[in-house]
Amino acid sequence: MIKSCYVQVDRALWTKRREEALKRFLEDIEIGYADRDIIDFIKLVFTKRNVFTTSSCSGRITIVDALYPWLRDESYIVFKKHEPVTVEEVVSIVSSKPLHRFWLISSGPIIHFIAPGIEVACKVLSIAREAGFKHSGIISVSEEGVVIEVVSGTWTSFLLKDGEYVLVNDLNKVVAIANEILIEGKKRLEKLFKMFKEVDI
Amino acid sequence: MIKSCYVQVDRALWTKRREEALKRFLEDIEIGYADRDIIDFIKLVFTKRNVFTTSSCSGRITIVDALYPWLRDESYIVFKKHEPVTVEEVVSIVSSKPLHRFWLISSGPIIHFIAPGIEVACKVLSIAREAGFKHSGIISVSEEGVVIEVVSGTWTSFLLKDGEYVLVNDLNKVVAIANEILIEGKKRLEKLFKMFKEVDI
Predict the structure, then answer these.
(1) Which residue of A80, A114, A188, B135 has the lowest C-beta tally within 10 Å?
(2) Closest Cα to residue B64, out of A119, A60, A156?
(3) Do A2 and B126 touch (CB under 8 A)?
(4) What is the pLDDT of residues A37-63, one digit of tens each?
(5) Please, what is the Cα angle at A156 between B91 and A134, to 5 degrees?
(6) Chain B residues near residue A137 by CB distance under 8 angstroms
(7) DSSP H helical segments within chain B, as ranges?
(8) Predicted TM-score (pTM) of this structure
(9) What are the structural domains, with CATH classification, of chain A?
(10) pLDDT(A6) > 70
């Protein structure tokens, strides 16, 4: 039987998690692992008293080999870039044969915020929605904090190849649209950045 | 400046909203407006004391004329079906010219649950995740209730046509995969149904 997952947040534990997340973020920058387009935003978030971030992505274009684009475990990422892509980069992959199917996925930013309570979480949610991240929600509440997943709907997949069979007949168009979608996501991140600069949280 | 959106739920108001939602649901069934694949599930939800649903969809295949598949306002739904589609149904649309682009979208179930507090909302969230609705979250908290959006990631778009230009070269494959995705979503709804039968909420 499912038990309620709701518990009060333990502020001391939340603070400890915040410190760990900050340490990890600074290490990621140092080793060049951090997603460059989101570094300034995350730095800004860490200047706020009542919220921090864990995982974050500024938006990216991937090509995955999977039966369906949402799969994670039975899926192989064969290409990943946080900036616009060229047709040449995509062609070189499409010429090989996938185990399942090649999907080109253009996705917007995803950021996990951790708040010390429901009130702050709701405030983050409200800012996120205002900035165009309309698919955001509180995804868990535990003694470590309230987790808000901030996502935009700027997500699209393109089925490129099913086994040996190429399904799109104009990669130029697909790449152009995938890049437009990526850029739209980055614009919303820019808006979120501006709103966070002004907000007292 | 953004204000906190968090307020305590007013149980009397929540009960009033529940009654209105039930009335609307029963009317929708009567006029044949309700999505048939989800009626039994919604009926079950209305037997529970601490949760009700407002909008719900069992999953559907649509063809939209829009620049991007996530748009709502500048978008025209030219085809909609809550069951698997045939190639013939799609061909007849693709032969016409879109204002922008034709996207075929196969999406899983979406259900909005309204709980009278965070604890119940977290319980719903936990059940939803267990049933495979991994993109679910609490999307708002107001005096009328806590709104949980339950969605699965079983969503895929296929760009069929950009202006006059047809982009896919095998509609049979696209339709087959779109139908597989729709059915996967309906399976998860079945699982959610079974879990809700057993849960005391």
Answers:
(1) A80
(2) A156
(3) yes
(4) 999 999 999 999 999 999 899 999 999
(5) 120
(6) 136-139, 149
(7) 11-30, 39-45, 87-94, 118-130, 171-198
(8) 0.92
(9) 11-195 (3.30.1960.10)
(10) no
